[in-house]
Design goal:
The strands form two sheets. Strands 2-1-11-10-7-8 form a six-stranded antiparallel beta sheet, with no helix packed on it. Strands 4-3-5-6-9 form a five-stranded mixed beta sheet, with no helix packed on it. The longest helix has 4 residues. It has one domain: Sandwich (Tumour Suppressor Smad4). It is mainly β and 151 residues long. 22% of the residues are buried. The termini are far apart. The protein has one helix and eleven strands; from the N terminus they run H-E-E-E-E-E-E-E-E-E-E-E. The radius of gyration is 17 Å and the shape is globular.
Amino acid sequence: MDEFDTVNWADVDSANKIDFPPPPPFIQPAPKQEMARKTSGVLIQIVKGPKWTVQKDTIIGRKPFFINNVPINLIKFDDERKTVSKNHALIRVTDSVPTIIDLKSTNGTYLVTPDKKLRLRPEVEYAVKDESVFQIGAILFKVKYLTKELK
């Protein structure tokens, strides 16, 4: 038993609690029928541009670099206007639902829907639905699930 097993978390004063916001209504975990399959990665495609297969955590940016020497994939988005931060966003790949995190970028990360554009809060992890479209800086890209059937 470690020290966390003996802590009564109800007694921890509110100054030490981390208040995680509820997930916003516009980004929710994938529907159950999609979660019945195992996600083996995602395909990231810039609208009218190149695409990458991502099967582990990946930083997207103008000049992405490793954070704290953690081995991670890096994808460089060419952006002559410098609207994309050097380390802009992190795509995290899990067995169930991929996620996206804005890395405190200057111009933000947005979920783009047919009728609106919603800015993601920095450093908050959001579930990504299959076929979601995001904008980082002036670049639009789509995230598509790569799946394999569970046996």
